[in-house]
Write the structure tokens for this entry.
Amino acid sequence: MGLQRFHLEKGDVVSVLCPPYAGRSWLVAVKMADGDSGSERGGGSSGGGGGGGGSGGFQHFQREQETQELASKRLDIQNKRFYLDVKQNSKGRFIKIAEVGAGGSKSRLTLSMSVAAEFRDYLGDFIEHYAQLGPSTPEQIAQSSGGEDSGPRRALKSEFLVRENRKYYLDLKENQRGRFLRIRQTVNRGPGFGVTGPGGGLQAGQTIALPAQGLIEFRDALAKLIDDYGGDDEELSGGTAAGGYGELPEGTSIMVDSKRFFFDVGANKYGVFLRVSEVKPSYRNSITIPFKAWSKFGGAFCRYAEEMKEIQERQRDKMYERREESEGEDVDDD
């Protein structure tokens, strides 16, 4: 079968008879990409969107069949447009957040319903912190914007989430245009994928910047979508499907020198876990400990604490002995 060319416009669908394979002929329907999802084209809350522009062809057509758009919400904040789309595929429901700038540039984040619920709660913390901040001085703006002599940039408040292969960084910052919440998502695709080469799979992150004046409106819109469409998601935090626990211990934190350690108990389809996060102004890292290992970790911490206590006591005793010996030698010399 020779090469055949077709001229298609956006939205056109054609049927192509492919060469025989495995004794069969294949009829493939190909749809040209329509660009963005229905909401990002301004289509409101109609279903059936999916995918970003530029993918085109059969892969885009497959994604349209596999992903269903359940609802969408548009927010206009300053000179930016934000779209919150609730979608569903074979893995469950999720929320896609898209920022469209004045020049048409787009950035997108993807949140599972459980992450979206935690994200909503974090937004409440940022709203409360933002409300307590006073007006910025020129010196504070210059420092937070990373001026020539201001040293490293520092956020007014920072938090982050780690869920399976995704990390979300939330930083309340300010510059000459005002205060904003920067949200960055990175995805680890595993070895052999992403921009780090064969040795790692950290994908280039996506970042959106939400003006602080729109935090409440954004949080309320997200909460409404979670209330309307998150109830059937088994991974929604706090649900009994997450390991069978409807109630979990509250998180806490401790401050040691310039470091803060956060202890957060969570649950997912694999069970209950404790996430311990170490946060400094320019550094953050975390580990996740499954519930079945808590006793072992606790026993190891207690054992090392007792051993270090004994070591310190022995060192003090030796120091006192040396001091007494030294004082005794001084008396003999007299």
